[in-house]
Amino acid sequence: MRESTCQRIIPHGSGSNHPADTITLDETARHRRRAKLTSDGGIEFLLDLPTARLLRHGEGLLLEDGRVIEVRAEPEALLEVRADDPRHLLALAWQIGNRHLPAQIESDRILIRRDHVIEEMLTGLGASVAHVEAPFDPEGGAYGDSHSNHHHHDHNHGGHGHSHEHGDHDHSHHHHAPHHHD
């Protein structure tokens, strides 16, 4: 019997309330486009999505035979970052974002992966930082769900590479001819 294929993700709360099984994965393992996966109960299937995305806690993986495998986010070792007030939390979020760290931003806290260097920086900025075990569901960000940061800074943000084209003028820097910009 050939394995089932999943080509559709159904949102949390839609579809059947009785999934055939669950699959429990940490955040890194939930960032997928195409992969052979095995559910917690042993159902083997091929995930085959048009683009890579983060499978979020509670979403359903719809198999072609109609069964649904519910995604469970495995608790991970995280830092819970809290602040004195909303503006302070925004400033901390900016510091975290400026370092391209995946972050789950909530109204009263930010969750990031544990990192003692970042922990010291945030404590130095007045944050209250606690070690927690929790599912990690970071923001998709401006570039959709293609996290360009799974600790390999390739900075090719989903097709918006830095190709340095500068309009019509060329960059041949001849020092004899004057540089005309129309």
UniProtKB/TrEMBL annotation:
<keyword id="KW-0143">Chaperone</keyword>
<dbReference type="GO" id="GO:0019627">
    <property type="term" value="P:urea metabolic process"/>
</dbReference>
<dbReference type="GO" id="GO:0065003">
    <property type="term" value="P:protein-containing complex assembly"/>
</dbReference>
<dbReference type="GO" id="GO:0051082">
    <property type="term" value="F:unfolded protein binding"/>
</dbReference>
<dbReference type="Pfam" id="PF02814">
    <property type="entry name" value="UreE_N"/>
</dbReference>
<dbReference type="InterPro" id="IPR007864">
    <property type="entry name" value="UreE_C_dom"/>
</dbReference>
<dbReference type="InterPro" id="IPR004029">
    <property type="entry name" value="UreE_N"/>
</dbReference>
<dbReference type="Pfam" id="PF05194">
    <property type="entry name" value="UreE_C"/>
</dbReference>
<feature type="compositionally biased region" description="Basic and acidic residues">
    <location>
        <begin position="162"/>
        <end position="171"/>
    </location>
</feature>
<keyword id="KW-0963">Cytoplasm</keyword>
<protein>
    <recommendedName>
        <fullName>Urease accessory protein UreE</fullName>
    </recommendedName>
</protein>
<dbReference type="GO" id="GO:0005737">
    <property type="term" value="C:cytoplasm"/>
</dbReference>
<feature type="region of interest" description="Disordered">
    <location>
        <begin position="1"/>
        <end position="23"/>
    </location>
</feature>
<comment type="function">
    <text>Involved in urease metallocenter assembly. Binds nickel. Probably functions as a nickel donor during metallocenter assembly.</text>
</comment>
<dbReference type="InterPro" id="IPR036118">
    <property type="entry name" value="UreE_N_sf"/>
</dbReference>
<feature type="compositionally biased region" description="Basic residues">
    <location>
        <begin position="149"/>
        <end position="161"/>
    </location>
</feature>
<feature type="domain" description="UreE urease accessory N-terminal">
    <location>
        <begin position="8"/>
        <end position="69"/>
    </location>
</feature>
<dbReference type="InterPro" id="IPR012406">
    <property type="entry name" value="UreE"/>
</dbReference>
<keyword id="KW-0533">Nickel</keyword>
<dbReference type="GO" id="GO:0016151">
    <property type="term" value="F:nickel cation binding"/>
</dbReference>
<feature type="region of interest" description="Disordered">
    <location>
        <begin position="136"/>
        <end position="182"/>
    </location>
</feature>
<comment type="similarity">
    <text>Belongs to the UreE family.</text>
</comment>
<dbReference type="GO" id="GO:0006457">
    <property type="term" value="P:protein folding"/>
</dbReference>
<feature type="compositionally biased region" description="Basic residues">
    <location>
        <begin position="172"/>
        <end position="182"/>
    </location>
</feature>
